[in-house]
Amino acid sequence: MFITQDIIVKIFFKEKIIKNRILIPHNRSVILAPTHRSRWDGLILTMAMGRRVTKKDCRFMVTNSEMTGIQGWFLKRLGCFSINQISPSFSVLRYAVNLIVKKRQLVVFPEGRINKYGKKIALKGGLFRLAKLATKKITNITIIPIGIAYSEVNPKLRSKVSLCFGEPLIVNDQMDLSISEFNEKLHEKMKTAENEALKNVGR
């Protein structure tokens, strides 16, 4: 935390703007659903919603390809764990569900990969399926859409960054939305939050 937040993020970004922050009570289960525009996203999200703010660490679900080499070593120590998007293992799903049930703070990037220019892509169905699995053990899960934006498409030294929170979605066992309907709602809320973040950094 000291190295990443007090040194790296503080030096690299000249301005960090957080808007509409939503803090969920500790007795509620939450999944953070941010846009994915850069490899900086994890550090920025940790700054806004990490242990120092929520008293909970962010646990990031990432793809297998992101957990290789030096990057993988670093990400693992930041609280990341990998999943095979095509054929997720039972053990990984169980671990993710347990994080939700134990009211930890799970982060899932619904776009499934870095989408540098913010083009509309079909959101992955994993977040919805994971939340529905967890509702077998817990009543309600709060999904928080988040928009992250940088003053440059490829963040540079002394860039600006903004993170904005969207209106939460509640998932429970009575929800009758299909995956596609849920993803459309989630995408709209993520995009609205991102548009506000883009204005904050002058884009």
UniProtKB/TrEMBL annotation:
Instruction: Name any one Pfam family assigned in the record.
Output: Acyltransferase
Protein's GO biological process: phosphatidic acid biosynthetic process
Entry GO MF terms:
1-acylglycerol-3-phosphate O-acyltransferase activity
- Domain Phospholipid/glycerol acyltransferase, chain residue ranges per copy: 30-151
SMART domains hit by this protein: PlsC
UniProt keywords, alphabetically: Acyltransferase, Transferase
Q: What is this protein called?
A: Phospholipid and glycerol acyltransferase
Species per Swiss-Prot/TrEMBL record = Prochlorococcus marinus (strain MIT 9515)
